Amino acid sequence: MTDARPPPGQIVIAGGGIGGLAAALALARQNIPSEVLERRPAFGEDGAGIQIGPNGTRILTALGVAPMLEASVTTPDAVHIRDAMSGRDLARFPLGPWIAERHGAPYWTLHRRDLHKALLDTARREPLIRIRTDVVVTALREERDESVTAVAADGEASRGRALIAADGAWSALRTDPFGGGAPRYTGKCAVRTVLPVSAVPEPLRRPEVNLWIGPDVHVVHYPVSGGEAVALVAIFDDGRVAGDWNSPCDRGWVGARRQRFAPLLKDLVGRPDTWRRWSLLALETSPQFSVGRMALLGDAAHPVLPFLAQGGVMALEDAVVVARALAADPQDPARALEAYARERTPRVRRVAEASRANGRIYHMEGVMAAGRNMALRHIPPERFMSRYDWLYGWALPA
Ligand SMILES: Cc1cc2nc3c(=O)[nH]c(=O)nc-3n(C[C@H](O)[C@H](O)[C@H](O)COP(=O)(O)OP(=O)(O)OC[C@H]3O[C@@H](n4cnc5c(N)ncnc54)[C@H](O)[C@@H]3O)c2cc1C
């Protein structure tokens, strides 16, 4: 155990990803000190894109992170949906100024690395936040003196008034004491890459979120790095049981699966030299989000399928809610964390269900797909987007 005395009232955060760093920043905005323990020896995010809806960009602005992202974000004009097999245009739903005006915050696409770096740089400037790398938290322990200890692999530990476990989708901490199960492979994987914009077929360079849907597959691509590059992700059914997370993926494997695509999509998917593969996970048993003075946050609490592009945004929402709860009830962190859990559970369940539903809709075949395509072509675009007001309009009550 470390001898260094923690600052009074410190909160320990296990995991320095999007959720852990956002939680540290949100706590600092409430004048609460924290220590972030990150497993990796050095920070560095892998190449992939991320979409942040208005419910997330509003939080990044409130946390003081947004100004660092000005040069790296794109505000796409629309979500452009096409049939992956015929190439037919199905719909173009408005983002850009329309969504920014409707929800008072923009819709962004950016490189994950840029988002993580902006969170980290903002956190490093904050005197109330301490960050330690190369610390693998292996267990959590509530002490008799009402503190909580994070036990690390090498015996070192950090102690605080409460603890937030934000150790991601493969969380080692969600089982004990939160009672969550191990993640289960869903039979779907995401293969991802980032291409310079010059390597993308000319008709696909518009500032849009492009979604191609088809039986058992969908492909998404959008601008990142301020429009200099394009993030490309394809979701495939894949029977291989995988314990792998972010592993290299053979170009030939992706190539074999693009044969049935429409020519423009086939061309795009054939261009990258390298891909990386993510297994998409679900939980058999959902954990409790809080137990005593300890709480789960982000993917550790609720890994969601990426079909609504909201997993990272849910971690941002968790962060501001947990910080506000701890600030509102300084005498009783356990009660504060219980309030956080109560507030977040229905919201993330709804998002998880909406993500699953999108997956089913994207991957339809036969008459179901024909009906879906007809509906997409005929629904007024603004009416369609306003069905997501519950999602993008979320804001922390004043
Ligand atoms: C294909 C795909 C596309 C996605 N697209 C989007 C999108 O467009 N928009 C969106 O909002 N979300 C998206 N997501 C989801 C998003 O990436 C995650 O929800 C988000 O990264 C969760 O953040 P987190 O902080 O909870 O976990 P992570 O980002 O995984 O961070 C966990 C951190 O904890 C550290 N850690 C792990 N174990 C320990 C330990 N024992 N001790 C200490 N540290 C530890 C890890 O090293 C890591 O730094 C996507 C996900 C996938 C797979």
TrEMBL record:
The alphabetized UniProt keywords are: FAD, Flavoprotein, Monooxygenase, Oxidoreductase
Protein's name in the database: FAD-binding monooxygenase
Recorded hits in Pfam families, A to Z, give: FAD_binding_3
Which InterPro entries does the record match to this protein? Answer: FAD-bd (IPR002938), FAD-dep_Monooxygenase_BioMet (IPR050493), FAD/NAD-bd_sf (IPR036188)
One GO molecular-function annotation for this sequence? FAD binding
Outline the extent of the FAD-binding domain: 10-354
The protein's organism comes out as Hyphomicrobium nitrativorans NL23
Which cofactor is recorded for it? FAD
